[in-house]
Every structure is written in C-alpha cells, then in structure tokens.
Amino acid sequence: MKDKKTLASIYVGIYALIFLITCIIFDSVLNVFVFTLMSVLIVNLIARFLNFLKIKGKPAIIVGLVIYFFLIIYGIILIIPVATEQFGSFISTINYVFENKSWETYIKKNPELLSGINDLMEWIQPKLNELTNFFLDKIAKGTPTFFVTIFFSVLLTIYTLLYSSWLKKSLPNIFPKYIRNICENFLEKVYSALSSFVDVVIINAVITAIAFYILSSFYFKDMAIILSFWAGITNLIPIVGVFFEYIPVFLFSLTLGIKGFIIVNLFVIAIHLGLFVIFVNVMKMHLNLNPVLMIISIIIVNQIFGLVGIFLAVPLLIFIAAYWDEFIKPKFES
Predict the structure, then answer these.
(1) What is the per-residue burial (b if ≥16 Cβ within 10 Å, else e) of 67-101?
(2) Which residues have CB under 8 Å from 323's CB, separation 6+?
(3) At what angle do helices 180-219 and 309-323 cross, to 10 degrees?
(4) Of 37, 50, 265, 330, whose CA is between 20 and 30 Å from 244?
(5) CA 66 distance to own-chain centroid
(6) pTM, rounded to two decimals
(7) Span 41-53, pLDDT tens digits
(8) pLDDT digits (tens, 9 = 90+) for 259-300
(9) Phi, psi (rounded to 5 degrees) for 236
C-alpha cells in the first residue's frame, strides 16, 4: 500500500508540475482554466440550490448554466455601463478627500497624530493613483485577450458540465490501474474542498455587494452601483480583497461627519467579521487552511502568474494542502 501511495504521489505531482509549467509558458491557458473552474463550480452551486426546487440532474445543470450566463450578460449590459459612468464620481470623491484633508476634522485636537496621518496620506495618495492607472492599463491591454478567454471558457464550461459524468469516469484513466482508486479519491477530496471554497467565496461576495449597495444608497447615492460592484469583485479574493474593498469606503466615510463615519465603518466591520468567521470555519471543515497561509499563497502566486494569480492562489493552496495530507504527512508521521 505504501508503494502504491508513493507511486500515486509521483504521478499526481508530475501532472501538476506539467500543468503549472504550461500555465507559466502560456498565460492564456491559465486564464481560461481559472475562469472555467470558477464557472463550473458556480453553476454547480446554482444547481444544488435548484435541487431544493426538485430540479435535479442534467436539467438542474442546464437551468444553472442559463441563470449563470444570464447574470453575466445582465452585468455586462446593465451594471458595468452604470458602474463606468459612476467611476468619475468615484475618482472625484477620492481626490476631494485628499485635497481637503477630510480626516483633519476628526483628529485636529491631537497635532502629533494629525501630523503623522498627514504624512501617511501624502504617501498613500500617489500609491492609489498608481494602482488606479495600473488597473486601467491592464484593462486596456487585456481587453482582446479577455474576449478570447471568455469565448473558450464559455465553451469549456458548457461541455465540462454537460459531459461531467464522462469526465468523472475518464479522468482517472490517466493513472495506472493499480493506483487509480488512490488518485481518484485524492481528486475527489480536492474537488470537494474547491467546491466549498468557491461556494463560500461567492456567497460572501454576493452578500457583501448587496450590503454595500444598501449602505451606499443612504450615504453615497451617486456611487452605489460602483461601490457594490467593487465590493463584490474584491471579495472574490479571500482575506486580501477585503482591504482593497475597504480603502475607498473608509476614505468616502471621512466626508460624512462623525456620526456617518462611525455608522458606515461599524456596519462594514460587522459584515466582514461575520463573513470571515463563516469562511474560516468552512475551510477548516475540509482542509486545515489558515488565513496566514492564504495570504502567503496569494503573494507568491501573484508574483509568478500576475493579476490572475490572485484568483488561482487559494485553489492552488487547497491542492497543495490536500497533497500534503494525503501523501507527504503520513510518511513524516510513520
């Protein structure tokens, strides 16, 4: 049995290494893989919800596909144009906060602290401008690649889901017969953990986007769509995304006065504390992943694969953690 596990670990490791090398050489492969993986898992999540409505099997998958692509098309046609229009107000408000030093109202009685905050804000402002320019540049340069990625990802998502039974039977055949069961159990463990990860991330992102839309409708009416859109997108990045999401909200809240500032920030903190507890507990149910490992993984994978690596980091960490638990740890403990 030990020899079988060793051989299984070698085969799994070789295939994983081939895949990673391919992604490094051909970044379009990585883009298509990440978007397809996320799409497949999201559609499966929708299909599981449909099971409660007595829609099961392939009909649930088909309805799930229709709902998923409808939401994407709806977002592209309606939400993104509105968010783009509100982007001007978004940038103007950020500039207003820095130009008028809105934070001074709250700490003017503490000159030493105020001096330190002013220095910090003077350092942050150009960094935010650089980050904004970086994203705009990436969007401009990546638009042609984006449409190619979407085209192939849509095809792969549809055929992967419609032929999921065939894939489940055929994929283990890439391993020798006498270690096939070990490899199949390992892949099922990884898929289960990935599915739970995507489920909780998507649900968290949707809840956060809705919460931010409600909050913004009271305090930032001219930017409600773009703030909720930004909150949803950034929350697809575990742990780290929250900080990117919080920066503009914190800056905007400085313009509301002390009461508005406290209400907005307490609301945001309460939402994220609840969602963070759910996220960590769900991940611990499948694999013992802690936030520190996730952050380190995001940093490293982002450096290797670029922007899309942010979304690949935790799935890759899930694979590594499962590989460790299945093949490496038993050898260390024996």
Answers:
(1) bbeeeeeeeeeebeeebeebbeebeebbeebbeee
(2) 9, 12, 13, 16, 186
(3) 140
(4) 37
(5) 22
(6) 0.80
(7) 889 888 888 888 8
(8) 888 888 898 888 888 887 777 776 666 566 777 888 888 888
(9) -75, -15
Report the 10 Å Cβ neighbour count for 27.
15
Instruction: Round to whole Å and give the CA distance between 318 and 289.
Output: 8
Distances in whole angstroms, Cα of residue 321 to Cα of each of 164, 167, 257, 286, 317: 25, 24, 46, 10, 6
φ, ψ at 109 (rounded to 5°): -80, -5
Do residues 30 and 23 lie in contact, with contact meaning Cβ atoms separated by under 8 Å? yes
Stretch among 28-37, 41-50, 144-153, 228-237 having the lowest mean pLDDT:
144-153
Distance CA(246)–CA(264), nearest Å, equals 11
Supply angle C-alpha 181, 187, 191, rounded to 5: 145
**88 residue type, one letter:** G
